Amino acid sequence: xxxxxxxxxxxxxxxxxxxxxxxxxxxxxxxxxxxxxxxxxxxxxxxxxxxxxxxxxxxxxxxxxxxxxxxxxxxxxxxxxxxxxxxxxxxxxxxx
Length: 96
What we know:
Elements: H1 6-19, H2 21-28, H3 32-45, H4 64-95
Helix pairs in contact: 1-2, 1-3, 2-3
């Protein structure tokens, strides 16, 4: 299964508005029904419709900014865990 990022989906939908969904799908190498689904999500959910990479579209309860902040928070937590592991590794090495 292909996964597309938010930017690709948004650009694909814009292109389909300009040249039509069938031509856009052929040009981009995306299944026609996939592009139609993206178009439908944009109509129903506006700016929060295309999160990308297989993630569900934004619920009406969360703004796009909140979703971005949650994603950033998750990335920072992962980075923090990596730094903790590295600190432990170097602390062991220093005791020798």
